[in-house]
Design brief:
The complex is a heterodimer of chains A (289) and B (223).
Chain A: E1 5-8, H1 12-22, E2 26-29, H2 35-41, E3 48-51, E4 61-64, E5 68-72, H3 77-81, H4 84-89, H5 91-99, H6 103-106, H7 111-117, H8 124-130, E6 134-139, E7 142-147, E8 152-154, E9 157-158, E10 165-171, E11 178-185, E12 196-205, E13 208-217, E14 224-225, H9 227-231, H10 240-252, H11 264-288
Parallel strand pairs in A: 1-3, 2-3
Antiparallel strand pairs in A: 4-5, 5-10, 6-7, 6-10, 8-9, 11-12, 12-13, 13-14
Helix pairs in contact in A: 10-11
Chain B: H1 16-22, E1 51-53, E2 58-64, E3 67-73, H2 79-86, E4 105-108, E5 111-114, E6 127-129, H3 131-134, H4 142-150, H5 159-172, H6 178-185, H7 195-205, H8 217-222
Parallel strand pairs in B: 2-6
Antiparallel strand pairs in B: 2-3, 4-5, 4-6
The chains are: A alpha+beta (289), B alpha+beta (223).
């Protein structure tokens, strides 16, 4: 790894000031599970690593039944996967946090970091998108909020401009009779990157779908929202035909590549299969809420 | 030349394929929540202070196996590198150096982490435990003893990491279940394929708790 300067601000203002001063030559880091490896491999280059773990706002994790979830960008995945509150209200996001890397990585890596890393295959990003999460960003020109589906713009690149920092993720409170789920396919049982990952959130009205969001990872240059697939479910009973149609529509939203993890053709097939499964799981959970 | 001195092999500019390839494996009542305080992260500095270190070497103190250690290192040095090359603690193994194998697992405040992905300066203020701190040949930790008794290794490179992962799981739940042991060791890869013996050793160290929590060695081998 090339030489780096380590800077650790304790307030948002300081962080923004440091990030602005160094521009493209600075990068925030939390657990470091991506950036340290990327710097060593030469995939990214930065001379200033800005440790944002000491900023209080980035360490927030709070849930309110009306206001929803505030998830600080630096909160490690382990605190999500081990939280009963998270498992109860956001089981899909919790599953995604529980799947990332290994326990060793979950102890360090954060959901915010997973998003900022900008991987097309990030596990927690489709889960956040399914939930309608928004990213709260601060920067030299003040604050702004961006829907998570608009956060990643290309592989490894996000909407963050020089000087900007992801503070927290804001997730709406779950509506009555709603829930979420996340599934990914990997050829082994653990420690792998998603070949396809699908997150879904559903709200039911009796046996009909009242609201639905479906998001997929590793099937396009960025995680994608399959809006057509989800919208077609509104007002429908979630029977085999509806699931089949949703799976097909989700698959049609994908533009995957061939790589060592799977062919494009295989990914299109798996996207449909996982979409059907996550919708079924989310629906079962929603019935109990 | 230090591993950390290697020049980037290619300039930035990321395709979908190269990005994923380079990314490592990775990668209150109604209200709530923060179950635990954020460990040492918020404690090391008072609010309002900005700490700046490097890029040149700087003197830092780490708490390793209950003892303070002072070392002079650059911010880019990983905890793994600090342990092995600066402090001579070579029990922690360098294998993949990208968080994919678990051989470099140590405990930070009792939690397992891959030390190749942690900057040494980022481990200040934490209790760092390495395999050397877990037990000694004459006074082994129960998990170390179980690995010896079960002969749960072949080449041995993954063993310190495996032991650290199992020890952390048993610290959490002395009567750990099969699923808990599997989850705890999921990030530890054994190229020799000694997993059945590793699980057997782990279950030898499990203290049987309430009914159904601990599985027999045979069951673990079949798992």
């Amino acid at each position: 790894m090339h030489a780096i300067t380590y800077e650790a601000p304790t307030t948002l203002d300081q962080a923004v000031s440091i990030l602005k001063t160094h521009g493209e030559n600075a990068r925030p880091f939390c657990g470091g599970t991506d950036i340290i490896i990327q710097l060593r491999a030469g995939v990214r280059r930065t001379e200033h690593l800005v440790d944002v773990k000491k900023i209080k706002e980035l360490q927030t994790l709070s849930f309110d039944a009306k206001k929803g979830l505030r998830l600080g960008a630096a909160v490690p995945c382990i605190e999500i996967s081990e939280s009963d509150v998270m498992r109860r209200h956001y089981p899909g996001l919790t599953e995604a946090a529980h799947l990332i890397g290994s326990l060793q990585i979950q102890n360090r890596a954060s959901v915010g970091g997973n998003l900022c890393n900008g991987s097309p295959a990030a596990d927690t990003t489709p889960a956040l998108m399914a939930l309608g999460a928004r990213a709260r960003i601060v920067g030299p020109n003040g604050e702004r909020e961006v829907p998570v589906e608009a956060f990643v713009v290309s592989p490894g690149r996000t909407v963050l401009k020089p000087g900007e920092l992801l503070v927290e993720l804001l997730v709406p409170a779950p509506a009555p009779h709603s829930s979420d789920a996340y599934l990914r396919f990997i050829p082994r049982n653990e420690m792998d990157i998603a070949v396809v990952g699908v997150g879904a959130a559903l709200t039911l009205d009796g046996d009909k779908v009242k609201a639905a969001r479906i998001a997929l990872g590793a099937v396009a240059p960025t995680p994608i929202l399959a809006s057509k697939a989800a919208d077609a479910l509104i007002g429908m009973k979630l029977d085999a035909a509806a699931l089949e149609a949703a799976g097909r529509a989700a698959s049609e939203a994908c533009s995957p590549i061939d790589d060592m993890r799977g062919t494009a053709e295989f990914r299109l097939h798996i996207a449909a299969v996982l979409t059907r499964r996550v919708l079924s799981i989310a629906a079962e959970r929603a019935k109990k809420n | 030349m230090n591993r950390d001195d290697r020049k980037p092999r290619k300039p930035p500019g990321i395709s979908r394929r190269s990005f994923i390839k380079g990314a490592g494996v990775v990668a209150a009542a109604a209200g709530l929540v923060r179950v635990r305080p954020a460990a040492a992260d918020e404690k090391t500095l008072p609010a309002g202070v900005v700490e700046k270190l490097g890029p040149e070497a700087t003197t830092i103190e780490l708490n390793i196996n209950g003892k303070p250690a002072t070392l002079e290192i650059e911010p880019r040095v990983t905890l793994l590198s600090a342990l092995r090359e600066h402090l001579g603690l070579t029990g922690t193994k360098l294998v993949c150096d990208r968080g994919a194998c678990g051989a470099c697992t140590v405990h930070l405040d009792g939690k397992p982490v891959t030390s190749c992905m942690v900057l040494a300066i980022d481990a200040r203020g934490r209790q760092i435990t390495t395999i050397e701190g877990l037990g000694t040949p004459s006074n082994m930790h129960p998990v170390q003893a179980a690995f010896v008794e079960t002969d749960a290794l072949q080449c041995g490179f993954c063993t310190p990491g495996m032991v650290m992962s199992v020890a952390a799981a048993l610290e959490r739940n002395p009567a750990a279940t099969t699923d808990e042991i599997k989850h705890a060791t999921a990030g530890n890869i054994c190229r020799c394929g000694t997993y059945p013996d590793v699980f057997a050793a782990a279950f030898r160290a499990v203290k049987p708790g309430p009914a159904g929590s601990a599985r027999s060695v045979r069951a673990a081998k079949d798992a």
